[in-house]
Amino acid sequence: MSWSTAARAAIAACALVAAGLLGSFTAAGAAAAYDPVSSGSTRLVLAKPFANLLASDRVGILVKEGARRQGRTIILSASGGEVDPGLAAGTVENAGALVFTKGGRQLPLREVTFKAKRAPLYAKVGGSRLKIATAARLGDQRKGFGTAFTAGGLRMTAKFASRLEKKLRLRGAFKPRQLIGTVESVVQPRTLHLREEGRVQLALDGAFKQKLDNLFVSLNPIAPGEIAPGPVLSFPIGLDSTLAPDASSGTIKLGGSVELLQLGNAQVFWRELWLQPALPSLLAETDVEPAPPHPGKQPQAPLLALEGAAAFVSDPAARTIGVSGWRVTLTAAAAASLNEAFAGSTDQFGAGEAVGSVSFKAIAF
């Protein structure tokens, strides 16, 4: 059996379309960058007809465990979750409890969770998690480094209505798709995913550079690392980098690496450079060649210590976080490695020795 030219062309076209769709799905998955929730609140505003219905059936809503109530508004404090403002997606976990009461009967809702989707409200009711409401419309808005999610036209699910009826022994007061009100969840992130834009600069201390020169050690960046007059090493901010809005935590993954070379003797590589403000350190995988006699590749560990106060500037509206003049010094392990490689194990380099200062301007998604 032979295939016609037209059939072959059709199959090829289908393959191209499938490949394109697969690429689109892969790109969409790769674009997801969920940031952990640090703080915020979820506000449930009861619709007036729903509040009137509660009153007419003598059903109350008590707030406990840190939840608050102001008239028809119930306020819960965000306690966890994650959000991706770029995809308008997220889950916000909340502290506090709502308790529906009638007479001596109660139905508590704990672990109330907001999700940015058509079924936005969930809670632990009894021993199981229950979908509480669906939404007619969803919205989201960036608020500086934070995000505000809204869900309007909340309507009670059939399971929740049934649970209320049975637990409170009501007779048809609550029905599926009963209008409840609206909900808004406004949260701030603990850390933000960064765009692959901008570079981290390491301005070398003159005395440290002179010491390398005296030992005939050349310092060479490996692409995409670069060196500029000063000298100033710079490295691009890489994929999956994160940073707190106040630059106090996160991991900035740097592109490129560094080679230190002493001809006829040793070659040191610093790879997998990660800036971690919470430690606070610049980490690297150190590789000292040739091995033997040198130790070869070693696990990633603190290479340079970040010390003192740095000038910090953040712009929530532009979603930028900037640091300048953050002093960096050799760790004890880094100093020992340099001595072993280039100084015949003499103490030419020491722990706490100034290497330079770090500066960068990061842009969050």
Secondary-structure map:
Elements: H1 5-31, E1 35-46, H2 48-56, E2 60-64, E3 68-70, E4 73-84, E5 89-94, E6 97-102, E7 105-115, E8 121-125, E9 128-134, E10 137-143, E11 146-156, H3 158-168, E12 179-189, E13 192-193, E14 199-204, H4 206-214, E15 218-222, E16 226-228, E17 232-236, E18 242-243, E19 250-253, E20 257-262, E21 266-276, E22 281-289, E23 296-297, E24 301-307, E25 311-315, E26 320-330, H5 332-342, E27 354-363
Antiparallel strand pairs: 1-4, 1-12, 2-6, 3-4, 4-5, 5-7, 6-7, 7-8, 8-9, 9-11, 10-11, 11-12, 13-18, 14-17, 14-27, 15-20, 16-17, 18-19, 19-21, 20-21, 21-22, 22-23, 22-24, 24-26, 25-26, 26-27
Over all CA atoms, what is the radius of gyration?
29 Å
**Main β-sheet: number of strands, strand sense, barrel status?**
15 strands, antiparallel
Instruction: Label the overall shape.
Output: elongated
- Distance between the first and last residues' Cα: 55 Å
Number-wise, the strands total: 27
Determine the number of helices (DSSP H or I, runs of at least 4 residues): 5
Uncertain segments: 1-30
Report strand %: over 45%
What is the residue-averaged pLDDT? Answer: 92
